[in-house]
Amino acid sequence: MQFALKKMQQEDAHQIASWHYPPPYDFYDVEQDQEDLAELLDPQSWQVSYYSVFNEANELVGFFTFKQEGQTIEVGLGLRPDLTGKGLGRAFLLAGLTFGQEHFSVSVWSLSVATFNRRAIHLYEQIGFTPLDTFMQHTNGGEYEFLRMVRPV
């Protein structure tokens, strides 16, 4: 599958907001956290850091966020629920990182992932991300442990 990233539009944001993942990944349903939902639906976010991802048939298949701090870019991502667990993660993530390298000045990639998400952590390690530290984050109505991972460009 080929992936193309484009600035997020209102229709994309609302479609993503309606996605529901199967347990335990329903933790990533955007509506679980009102701050995340508000950010996703804010047109300012679409201009600054949110990108929609489309396949060859121009279907919305995911999203990326890129937030720059110095030479580090924190990347966030989400693949449409019906496409997860089908071996697309590597190509999806690499497409996002390639896009980011072409559009931002970056020396180091950073991302955070819930520590229970072993499937994602394994993928990130395969692509060259290494664990940096863990931290507790208030989200989805509770406190959860996250792993911060980094990868030099």
TrEMBL record:
InterPro entries: Acyl_CoA_acyltransferase (IPR016181), GNAT_dom (IPR000182). SUPFAM superfamilies: Acyl-CoA N-acyltransferases (Nat). It comes from Reticulibacter mediterranei. Gene3D superfamilies: 3.40.630.30. Pfam families: Acetyltransf_1 (PF00583). Residues 3-153 form the N-acetyltransferase domain. It comes from the Bacteria. One of its GO terms (molecular function) is acyltransferase activity, transferring groups other than amino-acyl groups. This is N-acetyltransferase.
